[in-house]
Design goal:
The structure holds two protein chains of two kinds.
Chain A lengths: L8 H9 L3 H23 L2 H18 L10 H23 L21 H19 L3 H12 L4 H8 L3 H19 L2 H18 L1
Helix pairs in contact in A: 1-2, 2-3, 2-4, 3-4, 4-7, 6-8, 7-8
Chain B lengths: L2 H16 L6 H14 L12 H38 L14 H6 L41 E2 L12 E9 L1 H5 L12 E9 L4 E7 L1
Antiparallel strand pairs in B: 1-4, 2-3, 3-4
The chains are: A mainly alpha, B alpha+beta.
């Protein structure tokens, strides 16, 4: 006999829409983490990520019948809904953000614990922090591609479905996003050196 | 390690760092609460058996059939009796001998016995008289609904004694209004059927409207 946990997402969704609470719980436990992480990586805010996760599953409860399995997986569908909610929230937050607000205030602590080498751990944490900040500083259309393809391991095809664009667009956006990230992650010393060289050159030519 | 590799490494590290993150448990609690609110559990009421309904329907149908059969038989019986009566109708015109009767003959007859009275012919309704099958009256079609005959202004009872003739005509719907009948304005342009009763004098004496 097949237990409910072995059922596919589509079957669980159907059961949920028919009023099966257990199906909702199973579906939520199966998919909530990805949705939550996506929202968190996109917004950099825990409360927004929580709200978006809740909104996504409320939408599924209310309008789950609009999901068409022929058009893609339920996972992609949920990412699409989450993306819409995140972008909407970001627009609102942008309008309402008070001056001097620290965007990193809500970010979860990413300080990993290491038993071996505190220095190495520190370096690793610093790297993660800098990458996270660089990702968050990307324009949304590049950020979402990086989050989906690099951080969520979503295929290009599914990413194209989620974003509603061609695979080629996904590839080119990802390429551009990586280039932007490289620029942002270039070591500060190197940047300073470049600036200094420029200044020197300027002086020489002056 | 070049920049690209460093970036890939950094992204992987970030991914691994966030791998364990998940929405807090309170979100699930809120969702399940919302789900229960949306899907209010209604106690399952046992369905009322349809057998009672069908039993009632069957009884009603049987009753209807029985009434129809009885009505049909009664009707048929009445028709049969009428037919029998028609067949048994005596000839009420006995032959009269016109020969002159002599006095002797009259003397021989003492007291004339009262003749057995001829049986009184049963009254036969004219309605029972069959009309030729091909004869159709204006109101012959059962589906038609007709008003009563409305006398026209110059009608007098004496003129109808000799009979008359009914002629089916079509009139503009406005004619209904002239006789004080309601007019359906949606069908104002359509014509309305009417039976006009003509007397022997050739004048129209009454009219009735047919639908």
């Amino acid at each position: 006999m097949i237990s409910k946990s072995d059922l596919s997402d589509g079957d669980l969704l159907r059961s949920m829409l028919a009023g099966d609470e257990e199906a909702l719980a199973l579906l939520y436990r199966r998919r909530q983490a990805a949705v939550y992480r996506f929202a968190l990586q996109m917004s950099g805010s825990k409360p927004i990520a929580e709200d978006v996760t809740q909104e996504v599953f409320l939408f599924l409860m209310r309008d789950g019948h609009v999901f068409d399995p022929a058009r893609g997986s339920l996972s992609a569908f949920l990412f699409g809904v989450a993306r819409n909610h995140v972008l909407r929230r970001l627009r609102v937050e942008q309008l309402l953000a008070p001056l001097g607000d620290d965007p990193d205030e809500d970010l979860p602590s990413l300080h990993a614990t290491s038993d071996f080498c505190p220095l190495e751990d520190l370096t690793r944490t610093e790297t993660i922090e800098s990458v996270r900040k660089a990702v968050l500083s990307l324009p949304p259309k590049y950020r979402e591609v990086v989050v989906l393809c690099e951080l969520q391991d979503v295929s290009y095809v599914e990413t194209a479905e989620i974003l509603g664009c061609a695979i080629g667009t996904v590839r080119s956006r990802l390429h551009r996003a990586r280039a932007l990230l490289l620029e942002k992650l270039r070591p500060a010393a190197e940047v300073e050196e470049t600036n200094a060289t420029t200044v020197k050159s300027a002086r020489c030519f002056a | 390690m070049n920049d690209e590799e460093k970036l890939t490494h950094g992204l992987k590290a970030l991914k691994a760092e966030m791998e364990t993150l998940a929405a807090p448990a309170e979100v699930e609690v809120k969702l399940l609460r919302a789900f229960r609110t949306r899907h209010v559990v209604t106690p399952i009421v046992p369905k009322r058996s349809n057998s009672r309904f069908w039993l009632t329907a069957a009884l009603a149908a049987m009753l209807l059939i029985a009434i129809s059969v009885v009505a049909y038989r009664v009707n048929r019986g009445v028709d049969d009796r009428r037919n029998v009566a028609k067949e048994e109708q005596p000839k009420i015109s006995p032959k009269v001998d016109n020969k002159p009767v002599s006095h002797e003959q009259l003397a021989g007859i003492e007291a004339p016995e009262p003749l057995p009275q001829a049986p009184k012919p049963k009254h036969i309704r004219h309605a029972n008289v069959r009309r030729p099958e091909n004869m159709q009256l204006a109101n012959h079609v059962n589906t038609e609904i007709a008003t009563d005959f409305i006398p026209l202004s110059y009608m007098s009872a004496a003129n109808l004694q000799d009979g008359g003739q009914i002629v089916r005509v079509e009139l503009p719907r406005s004619a209904l209004a002239k006789f004080g009948l309601p007019v359906n304005m949606d069908r104002y342009n359509e014509k309305v059927k009417a039976d006009v009763l003509f007397g022997v004098d050739g004048l129209a004496h009454a009219i009735r409207f047919v639908q």
